[in-house]
Amino acid sequence: MESYVKRTVLVTLLLFCLLTPSTLLAGAVQQPKPTRPATSATPAATAPARLPEAKLISHVLPNGLEVIILEDHSIPLVTIELAVKNGSYTEPPELNGLSHLYEHMFFKQNRAIANAEEYLRRIGQMGIAYNGTTREEVVDYYFTTTSPNIRTAMQFMKDAARYPSFDEREFVREKEVVIGEIDRNESNPFFYLNQEMNSRLFFKYPSRKNPLGNRQTVGGATTEMMRLIQQRYYVPNNSALVITGDVVPGDVLKMAQEFYGDWPKREKDPFVEFPLVEHPPLAKSEGAVVLQPVQNVIINIGWHGPSIGKDNPATYAADVFSFILRQPNSRFQRNLVDTGLVTAVDLGYYTQRNVGPIALIAQTTPDKARAAIKALYDEVAHFNDKDYYTDEQLESAKALLEADDLYSREKLSDYTHTLSFWWASTGLDYFRGYLPRLRATSRADISRYITTYIQGKPHVGLALMSNEAQSKIKIQPEELMGQ
Questions:
Q1: How is 265-292 classified by DSSP, letter by letter?
Q2: What is the pLDDT of residue 110?
Q3: For residues 302 and 460, is the Cβ–Cβ distance under 8 A?
Q4: Residue from 211, 216, 220, 229 nearest 270 by CA
Q5: Number of Cβ within a 10 Å radius of residue 52
């Protein structure tokens, strides 16, 4: 099984944005990078009165399992995904990485299939694709197959979820696979920038923002620990079954009841018995240089952003403001990229229930690093100026964000993962109201977001550069804090 971990915090998402020809939105939704208009006078995009919203059907079984269905008969494919509210936000240091390790064990031997080879043979007979991901606030698993195989795929998912064997030999192998994944991440210089930001921004509970996991914890894991994860989180009243594609909702609900209806409910909500931690706010700003063998300089400034359930309005404003700044004709891009101070720059917010980070990240050269840092903080100081963006840019950003939702539905197998993400981190009510709330976002909403979470707030400023570059330019921590 090919297994992977989603980028752990928004800084890595934005690094991906800077270093590849694509851009990322809140919640790790990806869209093509817009082409630069010929002039800043290019007409703004305008939204229709209402873009069609995803017609989701949601039904909760008596045992608490939520079944989410998005019907689309355009092609005879179906994706079945099990989403579980698990991930690094459930992990104290002694469990860090076990959600990830459990993900690796999911498509292994279980009550119905004696070994992995048999699993792969049966999967191959259906021409099926399958995989899993571990993030901060969700772990998900999916099958994508032709619609006639939906019943078989539903049964496969049931057996994997409910009756894992945790074979000791397979377990030893998968621990090495996960440790190898950690090795590969540690060979990337940007890993250390991400790690430094994580450890400073979430200083009291850094493991809760690290879905990749800890080498020592993974190496010392036991199958008893896997059973512990299963008993706590792999229960119907902490899970959702997301089915998209060429399906008939009534038939799917009957199958869900047949296969999952007798899955015993956990008597106590795992998040009542094992509450999430409260990440304390930063007491003061910090700055540091991260030395790694890189040619350019990456500047990263991070803040604590809003949490779902505590300040939902700010999350919509965060998405809209980030998208305004992301457009090539924005003042932000013109003052930083068009002047040549940086080669790329972005500001983003990562939607999370348990403190979503805000990250400003830019790429520049050693000789321009000091001027770029000063210019970045100067832009932040002007974010709330009345003329920092126009009414047309505000409406254009909202229109483009709406259009992105439509584009993301073109490949339903990928959109299934998006639905799982929102279900786990925000809940379906938030997701259903997302587009209407975006449309209603005003300048006052954006201003409140900026003043509440960014301007004048404690933050972490980092610069990733080589030893050679730092020995020449001698960037000081105070500079990276904007002082």
A1: PPSS-HHHHSPPP-PPPPSS-EEEEEE-
A2: 86
A3: yes
A4: 229
A5: 10
Residue 89 burial (C-beta neighbours within 10 Å; 0-12, 13-18, 19+): buried
Q: 3-class DSSP state for residue 46?
A: coil
User: Is the CB of residue 304 less than 8 Å from the CB of residue 318?
Assistant: no
Written as one string, the DSSP assignment of 311-364 is: -HHHHHHHHHHHHHHHSTTSHHHIIIIITTS-SEEEEEE---SS--EEEEEEEE
In this predicted structure, which of 38-42, 339-343, 469-473 has the lowest mean pLDDT?
38-42
Same domain, 153 and 259: yes
In a domain, 18, yes or no: yes
What angle, rounded to 10 degrees, do the helices at 98-106 and 168-186 form? 120
Of 191, 427, 185, 388, residue with least CA distance to 307: 427
More confident residue, 115 or 482: 482
Its sign, for the CA torsion 253, 255, 261, 263, is: negative
* DSSP at 379: H
Q: Residue 43: inside a domain, yes or no?
A: no
Find the domain containing 340 and state its range: 3-36+277-480
Among 212, 238, 273, the domain boundary falls at 273
Amino acid in position 428: L
Q: Whose structure tokens read 């994580």?
A: 198
Confidence (pTM): 0.88
Q: What are phi and psi of 207, to 5 degrees?
A: -65, -25
SS3 of residue 159 by DSSP:
helix
Give the separation between CA 224 and CA 232, rounded to whole angstroms. 12
Query: Does 263 share its domain with 323?
Result: no
